[in-house]
Amino acid sequence: SVQVFGRKKTAVAVAFVKRGRGLIKVNGKPIELVEPEILRYKVFEPILLLGRQRFAGVDMRIRVKGGGHVSQIYAIRQAIAKSLVAYYQKFVDEQTKKEIKELLLSYDRTLLVADPRRCEPKKYVPLAAVLS
Asked: Residue 11 in contact with residue 72, Cβ under 8 Å?
């Protein structure tokens, strides 16, 4: 089995992948029930891109915490994509892994590469300085 994480802002999703029959759970719930509903397609992107048959032989358990709704969604999809690539590298073959990786990168780089942007700390300006 492989363990891979995906990140977005302060949200972290950890995917645990092992041989199985195509189950994908997020925090214990099936992936079809991911909230918010509008962003559900974002989570399905790696699966729709690569086709269900590539996920048929693996089980994924994903834990996600931190961040807001949108950040969590992006962390989950990154974890799914990265974990499948890692699984194929470890248990299948290099050639298939390369195909998967190129397909994902050509569609959206954030599926495999974390977005480094973070919030900047608020600047403290004394009120007296503003008023004078």
From this structure: yes
Q: Amino acid identity, residue 128?
A: A
Q: How far apart are CA 72 and CA 91, in angstroms?
A: 28
Residue type (1 letter), 119: C
Residue 50 CA to residue 103 CA, distance in Å, equals 8
The CA-atom distances, in angstroms, between 85 and each of 4, 45, 71, 104, 114 are: 10, 15, 21, 10, 15
Residues 24, 82: Cα–Cα separation, whole Å:
14
Does this model's pTM top 0.85? yes
> How far apart (Å, rounded) are the C-alpha atoms in residues 63 and 25?
9
Q: How does pLDDT run across 39-54, given as a tens digit for each residue?
A: 999 999 888 888 888 8
Q: For 56-85, write each residue's pLDDT tens digit.
A: 889 999 999 999 999 999 999 999 999 989
